[in-house]
Structure formats: C-alpha cells, structure tokens
Design brief:
The protein is of the alpha/beta class. It has one domain (about 1-105). It has helices spanning about 1-5, 35-45, 60-70, 90-105, and strands at about 15, 20-25, 50, 75-80. A four-stranded mixed beta sheet has the order 1-4-2-3, sandwiched between helices. Strand 2 (about 20-25), helix 2 and strand 3 (about 50) form a beta-alpha-beta unit. Helix 2 (about 35-45) runs antiparallel to helix 4. It is globular. The chain starts with a helix and ends with a helix.
Length: about 110
C-alpha cells in the first residue's frame, strides 16, 4: 500500500475497518481544514457518526500516515457493528451504508 500510494496522486483516502459505524477524520494538528466537512458529507450519506479519533487509536494507521505525509484528507470508516469477524449477513447493509461514501470519495 505504501508504494502504491506513493505512485499515485490521491486527493483523499478511505481506510476501511470493522466495526462501529463511525467515521474518524483527523490526525493531530496535521488534518486539512476541509476534512471535517468531507467527514460530515460522508456521515449524511451513510448514517455513520463522525467522531474524533480516540488517542489510543492514533499513530498506527494508514489514515494517519497519509494525512501526515501528504497533508490531504484521510478517513477511517468503521463499517458494520457486532463482534469480529462480522457475519456475511451484514454485507448488504454495509454496502448500502457505504456506497454513498465510495461515490463521494471518487468525485472529491
């Protein structure tokens, strides 16, 4: 992913995790100003809540690295809910919840 990301000029990235139906959008004081507005747009189309990244979850992910290195928006989308691994029966719901995020992410 590192080399792939370096070889492309992405405007933003989406890092998918499970679970919680939450959108994390910031990384310390490196987060671009527009990130919160984009996160709120993602929230409107998905129904997921926008939350501050918990301190214990910072410093370790692709989103954090991308924001720090490129100073562009990055988001962790915590899809679905329940215990991991999430059951395949949640696939249709997760897809419906996230298709708007994926489409918006492509056009921003």
């Amino acid at each position: 992913m590192y080399n792939f990301t370096l070889s492309h000029n992405f405007n933003l990235i989406l890092s998918y995790h499970t679970q919680g139906k939450v959108i994390y959008w910031q990384y310390q004081d490196y987060t671009p100003e527009i990130s919160e507005n984009i996160a709120n747009s993602f929230s409107r189309v998905s129904g997921y809540s926008v939350e501050d990244t918990p301190f214990e979850s910072s410093f370790a992910g692709y989103k954090d690295w991308f924001i720090y290195y490129f100073r562009k928006p990055g988001f962790t989308i915590e899809a679905g809910s329940g215990e991991n691994p999430l059951p395949i029966s949640q696939f249709d719901e997760i897809y419906r919840d996230n298709i708007g995020i994926l489409i918006l992410g492509m056009v921003l």
